[in-house]
Amino acid sequence: MRIGLVGVGRIGAFHAATLKGLPAVEQVVMADADASRAELTAKELGAEFAPDVPALLASGIDGLVIAAATSAHAELIEAAVAAGITTFCEKPVALDLAETQRVVELVEGSDVPVHIGFQRRFDAGYQAAAQQVRSGELGYVHHIRANTNDAFPPPAGYIPTSGGFFRDCTVHDFDIIRYVTGREVVSVYATGANRGESFFGEYGDVDAAAALLTLDDGTFVAVSGTRYNAAGHDVRMEVLGSLGSIAVGLDEHTALRSVEAGVTFPGGDPHTTFMDRFRSAYVAELTAFTEVVAGTRDVPCTVRDALQAFRIADACELSRSENRFVRLEEIGR
Question: Which residues does the UniProt record annotate as the domain Gfo/Idh/MocA-like oxidoreductase N-terminal (predicted)?
Answer without folding.
Answer: 1-118
